[in-house]
Amino acid sequence: MTKRAESKYKINRRLGVNLWGRAKSPIAKREYGPGQHGQRRKNKPTDFGIQLMAKQKLKGYYGNIGEKQFRKYYDEAVRRKGDTSENLIELLERRLDAVIYRMKFAVTPFASRQFVNHGHITVNGKRVNIPSYLVKDGDLIEVKEKSKGLTAVLDAAQSGERDVPEYIQVDHRQMKGSFVRAPKLSDVPYPVQMEPNLVVEFYSR
Question: Sorted alphabetically, which PROSITE patterns does this protein's record hold (predicted)?
């Protein structure tokens, strides 16, 4: 595993979970935390610690979103009507890089972000290279014609690691799909338990 890949998976060992459910995760071999004293870190977490860990899991899952941007999602989730934790999940799942990951056009959220950054994706026929772009219901997302034969895309589409959730429609032969509807927390296929309610508690302290 390259140093770059290892750095992405460090969060798995730090949090003690396999965030993306991948066989490559080091947590599969070493369940204790990273560092010289990782095996001895067994202190009972405080309420603050539990809330912080829930936030780190959610941020980490979506490719380690920066704190400033993540806080903006929380503020927007609060502003919207309805359950704040469900609103937060919806906003995260509407990110273009998250949608590309769900469509299985990329193997990891990190690869998905890079794929969007490099201009391989169009939304409703227009090139979009902003990973945080929020997709709307019914938007048509497509891999650009010149990019459809890329090995990384083909490998991701054929991977059996994940299934495409019901709120996403995708045609892997034509490399395009659409965002059907806003998902609920129970609709999102997280490999580990996510607790956005604890994230809300963290920010509303």
Answer: RIBOSOMAL_S4, S4
